Structure formats: structure tokens, C-alpha cells
Amino acid sequence: MTRKIIAFLFAVALTGAACFSQTTQTAVLEDFKPSTLNQPGQEYPQVNSQGYARFRIKAPQADSVKVSLGLGGRGGTKLTKGADGFWTGTTEGPMDEGFHYYHLTIDGGTFNDPGALNFYGSVRWESGIEIPAHDQDFYALKDVPHGNVQQILFPSKSTNTSRRAFVYTPPGYEKDKSKKYPVLYLQHGWGEDETAWSNQGHANLIMDNLIAEGKSKPFLIVMTYGMTNEVKWGRIKEFKIEPFQTVLVDELIPYVDANFRTLADRSNRAMAGLSMGGMETRTITVNKPDVFGYYSLLSGGVYSPDELKDKSKAKLIFLSCGSKEKPDGVRNAVSALKEAGYNAVSYVSENTAHEFLTWRRSLHELAPLLFR
User: Fold this and answer.
1) What would the pLDDT profile of 344-357 be if each residue is shown by its tens digit?
2) What residue numbers bound the domain in which 28 lies?
3) Which of 92, 105, 131, 150 has its CA 20 to 30 A from that of 220?
4) Is 10 inside any structural domain?
5) What is the CATH number of the domain that holds 102?
């Protein structure tokens, strides 16, 4: 792991923390509706058509309530107490489209919003809010054939336990018992776990829709914990890839190939990851070029031609990020890879930062390019 890559990941993470604008020039429209990620029957939090979010929390004995939004909860919206004991407040500006983590700070204590569903991020279960995106149709739940996401428990001698993974099998997998499929190993970011790509990322719905439209080949997606969260934020340079590389390459992949109908070779195996999962992907694909044929880093650094020299040539290298991250770095890296003869593709998600809409869009662009 190089200092350059570590510095890049810190920079994009800090960019993602600024998930809402500080401008107050636009008049706020009073067309607020409950967030789609609210608990059943809960009216708050709410979102309006401009992307502002409004919160209402009952805490009659509290002296201060703040909503902290973004990666790690930096930034925030102070709420105002009413005579009825409810605290209410609206973000100072519209938030980026897509999914955001948040939590409450009440008199210095950290709490989740009882009105919202919870999602694992920032090394804890955080509240989640969804700002409707203008292009949300590609990850919408539609009347199309659906695949399945199932939990598996696979033996891991290296960690002396059974470990968990989730496997997406595409529509039709259960019917044709003779058909075998390629596999994408898809990694989450720091602070998250193996539930992130299904819950926050809607990876299964993205794939269902692409397959129904004939835009992507059907393939399996395997999502497991990247063993990243034992490393505290700010000390990521101490992360060692070897334990997870052993779990993935020597334990999980053989288990999946033995228990699912896979095309078990390099040409039909891909690895991708977001943020720190991208850093894991980069390191493992460079270390094990005979295992994966397709490489993808989503807001997770870049490859250089020199580090891939004399390795088995990748069939595809896909690099992406949000336009509010460092898009020039991604584009320049892809240009250099192309000049060196690699099949490299860049993608930049417009008007997003280090956040899940960037990664949803990235998966939507990546999937049709895999296993062609």
C-alpha cells in the first residue's frame, strides 16, 4: 500500500463529508415528504423537491440536539426546541442526491433517529436518509424477474471460525441447473460490512434491471466483510492486506466455486471495491493476477502501468469516482493505461462525492462491461 493511495483515500473521504451545501440563497419549498427510508408510519425525517432534509426529534429534557450528516457524522444541522418538547430543523442547503448516513447528537451523546431505518456504516449502525435522484430509475424496484441475495457461512481455517458472505444469484439461476455463471467479488468501504452493497447500494436491483433490459450478462455477486474495521480511522496506513487476501483467495473463492455453479477461472472472475474496498481490490489484483481477470476501483485509487507490468494482462480495468472527488486523477490514470495497451475505462458520477450514489452509478456502468 503506497502513501500516495492512502493520501488519495483520505482526501476523497473528507470530500464526501461535505454532503450538503451551505448556501442559503434559495427559498425552501414547503413540499416536504417522509423519506423513503423511514420506519413504518414515521413522518420524519422528511425531504423536499429541492433536496433539503427536515428532522423532528422528541427530546423534552434535552438541552441541545444536532443532526450529523455524512461519513463519520461530520457537518451538522442544529435543531430548535419547541414548546411541545420536539426539536425541529432543516439543512442549510440541499443535500447531494442519493443515500446518506446520519446520527443525532443529544447533549453530547450519540443516538440514532427513531424515525429512520438503520444501515451499517462508520463502524456502527447509523440512520439513513435518501434524497431522490433524478436518475433513480436504474436502481428502482420494478416488475421484472428478480434474483436472490442469500447469506452463506463459509469455513475459514486462517481465522479459526466460520465467516459470512452474501451471494447474489441472477434471475433464472434456480431453474437451469446446467448453466454456469461468472462471478464478481464486490467489496464495501471502511466502516461498512458485507450488507452494504445490498442495503445501501441496491446492487441486486441494479443487476435485475440491467439483465431485464438485456444490457448485462447474468453473473453472481459475492459480498463479504473485508476485515477493514479493526483498523481505526486515521490509522488506515497500518492496514495489512494478507489476512483478508487469504480469506478471499484461499477460502471464500474455493467455497463459492464448490457450492455454486460458477465458471471457475480467471477469465470469468472479477473484483471490485469502493473506497477502502477499492484499495483492497487494487492490492489483491496486483498480488494475484492469475485469480482475477477484471479489476475495478470505485473511489478507491488508481493503477499505474508500471505496477501491472509483467503481470497477467487484465481484460478490463474500470476506474471511477464522483465529480466532487478527484476526477482528473481517474481520467489521467485511464489515459496512461490505454497508452500502455490496457483495456481501461473511466467513469465520473456527476454532482456526487464519496457517497453511495457515486458507487451505484459506477456499478451500473461497470456491469455491462464485465465478462464480454
Assistant:
1) 999 999 999 999 99
2) 24-132
3) 131
4) no
5) 2.60.40.10
